[in-house]
């Protein structure tokens, strides 16, 4: 349904919204609270904090307080939840829920936003279901009048899932999961780097590390950690190891040692168990390894450190987007609308019926209890299933006996970025598993022209997932000046297919090679471009490897810069980000760091806009807020430079605030990759080589490979909810070659959110908001009663 005629600034007039956080806290909850409050106020609604979760709802009084714009300032970077969370037994009893209803009715609150796990959201749905009977009982008891009951006749509920375990079905990522992965990977890196540093000097032991992470009922954290660090083994509740796993594990560890690997890593979810239902703990595994192999073994149980720390950029943006969506879902709801959760699928915000999600989450538990392990994996969702399948493939360390006699070359092109090495590692190992000979091209297309090519082995890419930059070496040189030499090299090394990993130069280089196919038959081989650049400007993909790492670097730097002004007078910081002409980093960092403005090339601005922004900050500094943040993309405007904007703000802010400027520069390209970039790079590398393998079979004719169709040279990219292959030639029309950016970008639709959260009175296009979907449609293996129930619901809708 469309809401284009609805004025979003008047949607909430005369209505009240309350927001609470419940259950275990998760990083990013504060971003969701902040967005809920500010968007609620933007719509004209009254917004209330409910402190201490459901307990505060039951106790009432000072636990339910009116929220203001300033009351949610400077909370984006804080972990946990500033409004408190508590496990509440009182709310489980009807008497407690009656007290909660009374408190809401007295304040005129009929819209409730709940941020928590499946238990918290199930409780919210029960509260909504029995709301009318609670009001009847309150009227009978003389605690509310008939008029009050009539005014508050219906309660709207919207949920946001805050859980570090990512254990709620229907959403790709729950608030807090990415930040928890950051904490875990920090520990893994410390273990790996310390061990590697010692090895350089020949002083370290050969050692096995066992890391136990959270996940009592869900193995997501363990699984993604295993993918992100290249673990030797992972134990998750959804898929217990086969009978005789003890021998298999010991053989794998011994085999790795025989290959020269001095460090073994095993990841264990706290809820891991065997096929017999008995728990498998880190100490059990340690005893097994020490007894059977005699390896020096250490265990680390991370515990609540995974819940702590500042939220990642992803969790801040996720919480902010979900908060906006939650308010819109509440204000658009009717008495017939089922309680929903706002969720993420790919990069798309979706609304899903709350109880459908809860039911599928329960179905996972049922499947596990009934030993239907494959069903449990599928019910977790496509993202979980893809992670599991990728891990299973990469876990094989014995190459097939029969070789394919196919040579696959891998080249890095353009500027280096974090996550490139993870993609190379994955591509190499999947290629070896397929029986191919893998070739590493050093120094980009120039290296390809000069024959700077060596075979690369399984152990040759060990430990690459956590390394930043490009181990293969990379250059910005395009192939056009070396086309003849490249074709001769391809013939000399008998290269049958090419994996090109890089940014816009990789895309351009791929196009040039495809164009040259007409003249050089040697170039008629399958090719795939994997986008890897901090700028996120490659056509054909919503995300590029490396962009998440750069985004986190910018966000954490903004946090530190803002913190540097704590306790001083009012100050505005102007920060320049990378990205070329692409404003992705500036926009997303603006959302994650709470910027007042982000100047980018794609969103044209002039002197009137600058004047409005300065005036906006002058007014802001008259409140309790003492800091401002302005981001500027490096090529947003040739005349309105960073120095110009700094001078303008300094002059116009005289007597109200002073200014500082920072140019972040190449620090945005450095550092170790984030969990997202490691995982994304691993999946992209894997999928690229599997696709090439199929293409090679299709293109094999009369004893040779000949590929000259458009679909034999593609960009592998994330498009909305799926990884897709798009022919390079087709992406020509979608590209602005002068400015090296796609003609359309999905993230531009998020810019109004950033402006609204910065208190700009602009229009929000409500027609773009998500519509209600059904989680069941995305599941392939459903218990019969649930399928029947879903079919009945769909038939009712159609009628």
TrEMBL record:
It is found in: Cytoplasm. Transmembrane segments: none annotated. Residues 17-329, 407-691 form the Phosphofructokinase domain. GO terms for cellular component: 6-phosphofructokinase complex; membrane. Residues 407-799 are annotated as: C-terminal regulatory PFK domain 2. Allosterically activated by ADP, AMP, or fructose 2,6-bisphosphate, and allosterically inhibited by ATP or citrate. Residues 1-396 are annotated as: N-terminal catalytic PFK domain 1. Beta-D-fructose 2,6-bisphosphate binds at residues 476, 533-537, 571, 578-580, 634, 660, 666-669, 740. PROSITE patterns: PHOSPHOFRUCTOKINASE. Its cofactor is Mg(2+). GO terms for molecular function: 6-phosphofructokinase activity; AMP binding; ATP binding; fructose-6-phosphate binding; identical protein binding; metal ion binding; monosaccharide binding. Belongs to the phosphofructokinase type A (PFKA) family. ATP-dependent PFK group I subfamily. Eukaryotic two domain clade 'E' sub-subfamily. Belongs to the phosphofructokinase type A (PFKA) family. ATP-dependent PFK group I subfamily. Eukaryotic two domain clade "E" sub-subfamily. Catalyzes the phosphorylation of D-fructose 6-phosphate to fructose 1,6-bisphosphate by ATP, the first committing step of glycolysis. This is ATP-dependent 6-phosphofructokinase. The gene is LOC110532739.
């Amino acid at each position: 349904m469309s809401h284009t005629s609805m004025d979003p600034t008047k949607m909430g007039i005369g209505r009240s919204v309350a927001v609470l956080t419940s259950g275990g806290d998760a990083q990013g909850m504060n971003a969701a609270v902040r967005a809920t409050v500010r968007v609620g106020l933007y719509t004209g609604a009254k917004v209330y904090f409910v402190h201490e979760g459901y307990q505060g709802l039951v106790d009432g009084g000072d636990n339910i307080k009116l929220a203001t714009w300033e009351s949610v300032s400077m909370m984006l970077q804080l972990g946990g939840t500033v409004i408190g969370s508590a496990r509440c037994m009182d709310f489980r009893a009807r008497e407690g829920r009656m007290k909660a209803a009374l408190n809401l009715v007295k304040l005129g609150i009929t819209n409730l936003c709940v941020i928590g796990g499946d238990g918290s959201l199930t409780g919210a749905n029960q509260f909504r279901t029995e709301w009318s009977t609670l009001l009847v009982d309150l009227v009978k008891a003389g605690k509310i009048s008939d008029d009050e009951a009539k005014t508050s006749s219906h309660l709207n509920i919207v949920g946001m899932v805050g859980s570090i375990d990512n254990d709620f079905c229907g959403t790709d990522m729950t608030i807090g999961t990415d930040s928890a992965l950051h904490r875990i990977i920090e520990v893994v890196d410390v273990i790996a780097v310390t061990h590697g540093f010692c090895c350089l000097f020949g002083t370290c032991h050969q050692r096995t590390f066992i890391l136990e992470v959270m996940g009592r009922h869900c193995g997501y954290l363990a699984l993604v950690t295993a993918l992100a660090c290249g673990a030797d083994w992972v134990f998750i509740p959804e898929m217990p190891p086969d009978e005789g796993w003890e021998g298999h594990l010991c053989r794998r560890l011994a085999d790795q040692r025989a290959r020269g690997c001095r460090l073994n890593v095993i990841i264990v979810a706290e809820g891991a168990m065997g096929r017999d239902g008995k728990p498998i703990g880190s100490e059990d595994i340690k005893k097994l390894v020490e007894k059977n192999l005699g390896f020096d073994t250490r265990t680390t149980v991370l515990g609540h450190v995974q819940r702590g720390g500042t939220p990642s950029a992803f969790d801040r943006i996720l919480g902010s987007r979900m908060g906006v969506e939650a308010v819109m879902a509440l204000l658009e709801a009717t008495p017939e609308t089922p309680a929903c959760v706002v969720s993420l699928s790919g990069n798309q915000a979706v609304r899903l019926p709350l109880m459908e999600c809860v039911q599928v989450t329960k179905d996972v538990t049922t499947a596990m209890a009934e030993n239907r392990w494959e069903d449990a994996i599928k019910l977790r969702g496509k993202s979980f299933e893809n992670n599991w399948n990728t891990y299973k493939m990469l876990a094989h360390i014995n190459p097939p006996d029969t070789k394919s006699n196919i040579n696959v070359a891998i080249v890095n092109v353009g500027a280096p970025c974090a996550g490139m090495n993870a993609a190379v590692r994955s591509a190499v190992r999947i290629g070896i598993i397929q029986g191919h000979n893998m070739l590493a091209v050093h120094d980009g297309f120039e290296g390809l022209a000069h024959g700077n090519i060596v075979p690369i082995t399984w152990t040759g890419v060990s430990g690459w997932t956590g390394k930043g930059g490009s181990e293969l070496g990379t250059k910005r040189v395009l192939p056009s000046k070396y086309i003849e030499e490249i074709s001769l090299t391809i013939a000399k090394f008998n290269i049958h297919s090419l994996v090109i990993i890089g940014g816009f130069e990789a895309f351009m280089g791929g196009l040039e090679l495809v164009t040259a196919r007409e003249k050089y038959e040697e170039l008629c081989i399958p090719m795939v471009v994997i986008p890897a650049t901090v700028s996120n400007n490659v056509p054909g993909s919503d995300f590029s490897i490396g962009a998440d790492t750069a985004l986190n670097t910018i966000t954490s730097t903004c946090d530190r810069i803002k913190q540097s002004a704590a306790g001083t007078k009012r100050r505005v910081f102007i920060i320049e980000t990378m990205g070329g002409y692409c404003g992705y980093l500036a926009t997303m960092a603006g959302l994650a760091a709470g910027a007042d403005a982000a100047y980018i090339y794609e969103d044209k601005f002039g002197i009137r806009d600058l004047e409005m922004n300065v005036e906006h900050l002058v007014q802001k500094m008259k409140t309790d807020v003492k800091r401002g943040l302005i981001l500027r993309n490096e090529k947003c405007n040739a005349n309105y430079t960073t120095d110009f904007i700094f001078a303008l703000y300094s002059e116009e802010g005289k007597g109200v605030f002073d200014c500082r400027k920072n140019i972040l520069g190449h620090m945005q390209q450095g550092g170790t990759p984030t969990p997202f970039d490691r995982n994304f790079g691993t999946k992209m590398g894997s999928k690229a080589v599997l696709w090439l393998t199929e293409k090679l079979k299709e293109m094999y004719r009369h004893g040779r490979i000949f590929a000259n169709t458009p679909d034999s040279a593609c960009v592998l990219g994330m498009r909305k909810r799926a990884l897709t292959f798009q022919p390079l030639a087709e992406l020509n029309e979608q590209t602005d070659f002068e400015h090296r950016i796609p003609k359309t970008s999905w993230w531009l639709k998020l810019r109004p959110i950033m402006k609204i959260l910065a208190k700009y009175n602009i229009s929000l296009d409500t027609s773009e908001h998500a519509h209600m979907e059904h989680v069941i449609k995305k599941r392939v293996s459903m218990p019969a009663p649930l399928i029947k129930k879903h079919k009945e619901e769909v038939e009712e809708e159609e009628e």
